[in-house]
Amino acid sequence: MQELWFQAKAEQSRLLPPVCPRCLAVGVRPLPVPVLGPATGPAATAYYCERCADDLERARTLQVARLAVSGLLGIGTATTAALILGGAQVGHQVMATVLAVALPLGLTAFSTTSDGPALYQIATDSTPPHWLARRREYLTEMTADVSTRPRPRTHLGWRHAVWPLVAAATWLLGLHWLGRAELRVIHGGGPADAIVLVDHRRRPSIGPTQSEHPHAARPVATLAGRRSLALVSETGQPLAEVTATLWPGRDYLLGTLPRGQCLFLESQEYGARGDARQLVALTGSGPLWELPVNVDAWFLPLRARPDLPTSGGLRTAVRLLACP
Ligand SMILES: [Zn+2]
């Protein structure tokens, strides 16, 4: 059965009675009266007895603890999901994180406690103030005109649940943003498409490449960490396979190169003093190349330095050219 509370409006000049709104014992501890609705002006003060004031404080601490636990659960789930799934199935990672936050909050939202405040002020534009109290006797101390009303649903509003959710979602976003390794995959053997596997999970297919062009390598979203990387033909034949540690923020190229072609790192300095263009062969025989710098362009030549002075800077490109 729904618990009934009591509502009354008191005269502006009437002070709240000096008794505990919860048990009607002598009130000694001043506590602000929570306002239902948008608060305007300073909160009124009610006097609770020592025991009830302690209970209220404990309930508030519990509420904060619940939010903290659900936030931590969300962060833990986000970390686990990102470690296991890496850059794959981001939708599932978001869903698991939201569930981990919402589940403990949802379970406690239905548990009705009697630990909340026993007196609320109702936000109204009009004066005098309206009060909502658990005990009728508390209000009859001020006025005889008391009406009944259902118990206010105030415990742990969904408004508060937003914070653990924001914390966990920000954490997940941070993991994917800061923990990202830039992985590109090239398939130099022909003629059919090949499938990229990251940690034995199927990722996009990639078409064969015979020569350099801007779409020769396909980016594959991957988080840093120890990863098992593979490129297999559509019939399941392994073309390239490696287990390696990918570092966040570094650029990697995985795959096989067309026959007779090698990887080069082209760098071009721009600006008044810059004149250096360098082309150096990338060492390593694959199937995974860790690039020594962050790459600006993949498999396309850099623009030559114009005759007019331009703003400075150094750009780097990965090139696929005939082997020396
Ligand atoms: Zn009390």
Summarize the structure.
The chain is of the alpha+beta class. The chain is built from four helices and 19 strands.
What's the pLDDT, averaged over the residues?
84
Task: Label the overall shape.
Answer: elongated
Trace the largest sheet across and list its strands. Answer: 3-5-6-1-7
Percent strand equals 25-35%
What does this structure look like?
By secondary structure, this protein is an alpha+beta fold. It has two domains: 4-176, no CATH class; 180-322, no CATH class. The chain is built from four helices and 19 strands. The chain has a five-stranded mixed sheet. It has a four-stranded mixed sheet with strand order 11-8-14-17. The longest helix is centred in the N-terminal third of the chain and has 36 residues, at 50-85. It is elongated. It starts with a strand and ends with a strand. The structure holds zinc ion. Zinc ion (ZN) is lined by residues 20, 22-23, 25, 48-49, 51-52.
Provide the fold topology.
Blueprint: E1 4-9, E2 29-32, E3 35-36, E4 45-48, H1 50-85, H2 90-109, E5 119-122, E6 130-133, H3 136-140, E7 146-150, H4 158-178, E8 180-187, E9 194-198, E10 201-206, E11 217-223, E12 225-233, E13 238-246, E14 251-256, E15 261-270, E16 277-281, E17 288-290, E18 297-298, E19 313-322
Helix pairs in contact: 1-2, 1-4, 2-4
The structure holds zinc ion (ZN).
Notable traits:
binds zinc ion, 324 residues, four-stranded mixed beta sheet, alpha+beta, 2 domains, five-stranded mixed beta sheet
